[in-house]
């Protein structure tokens, strides 16, 4: 489990395209410290398994389902990525419950800067709109954020200077895709209540 508090801004150093998957090599000096085969690391909000680790880089395989549901397939060598290790049992819970299981993708629609923060509007797939509420939590490219406004086709978040400086969200432009993970609690509640269109 993750909390959506990005630990470092890493870099994709290589992408190998396979028949039904891709293999990524990612540089992240902090998250690779002590990492070993089988460990989990979230890359732009997607939980990936470390296959190999050497120096400040790790390799992870990304299956077709993950490529289809997320925007990892758009990454190339040189792409910057948000990296986070799983939360340890006695760690500080800084964000919200994040599984690293991306529900879908959105697109940066607009950015409105101000003196101390920036409001970002992001498109919202129709199937996810019912899980997004004003002042609720959502994960965007692995970053735990609070929803400012929630519509049926979009939502907005406010980004503080730290988020702008230390995550990919400070560099995304209108038209760029982002990974979205909604609050898993909302999906479980829907399923338990037997609501039409209940979560998978």
Automatic annotation (TrEMBL):
Presence of keyword Cell membrane: no
Record domain Lumazine-binding: where: 1-96, 97-193
Catalysed reactions, as listed in the record: 2 6,7-dimethyl-8-(1-D-ribityl)lumazine + H(+) = 5-amino-6-(D-ribitylamino)uracil + riboflavin
Keywords annotated in UniProt: Repeat, Riboflavin biosynthesis, Transferase
Cited PROSITE patterns: LUMAZINE_BIND (PS51177)
Source superkingdom: Bacteria
EC code: 2.5.1.9
Pathway membership: Cofactor biosynthesis; riboflavin biosynthesis; riboflavin from 2-hydroxy-3-oxobutyl phosphate and 5-amino-6-(D-ribitylamino)uracil: step 2/2
GO molecular function: riboflavin synthase activity
Lumazine-binding repeats: 1-96, 97-193
BP GO annotations: riboflavin biosynthetic process
EC class of the enzyme, as a word: transferase
Function as written in the Swiss-Prot or TrEMBL entry: Catalyzes the dismutation of two molecules of 6,7-dimethyl-8-ribityllumazine, resulting in the formation of riboflavin and 5-amino-6-(D-ribitylamino)uracil.
Complex and partners: Homotrimer.
Protein name, entry field: Riboflavin synthase
């Amino acid at each position: 489990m993750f909390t959506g508090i990005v630990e470092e801004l890493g870099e994709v150093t290589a992408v190998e395209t396979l028949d039904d998957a891709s293999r990524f090599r990612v540089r992240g000096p902090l998250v690779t410290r002590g990492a070993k085969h089988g460990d989990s690391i979230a890359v732009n909000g997607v939980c990936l398994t470390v296959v190999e680790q050497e120096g400040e880089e790790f390799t992870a395989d990304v299956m077709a389902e993950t490529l289809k549901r997320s925007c990892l397939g758009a990454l190339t060598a040189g792409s910057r990525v948000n990296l986070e290790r799983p939360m340890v049992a006695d760690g500080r819970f800084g964000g919200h419950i994040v599984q690293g299981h991306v529900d879908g993708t959105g697109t940066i629609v607009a950015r409105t800067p101000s003196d101390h923060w920036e409001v970002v509007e992001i498109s919202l797939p129709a199937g996810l709109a019912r899980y997004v509420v004003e002042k609720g939590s959502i994960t965007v490219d692995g970053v735990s954020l609070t929803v400012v406004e929630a519509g049926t086709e979009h939502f907005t978040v406010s980004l503080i200077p730290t988020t702008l400086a230390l995550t990919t969200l400070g560099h995304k432009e209108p038209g760029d895709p982002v990974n979205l993970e909604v609050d898993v609690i909302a999906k479980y509640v829907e399923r338990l209540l037997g609501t039409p269109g209940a979560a998978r």
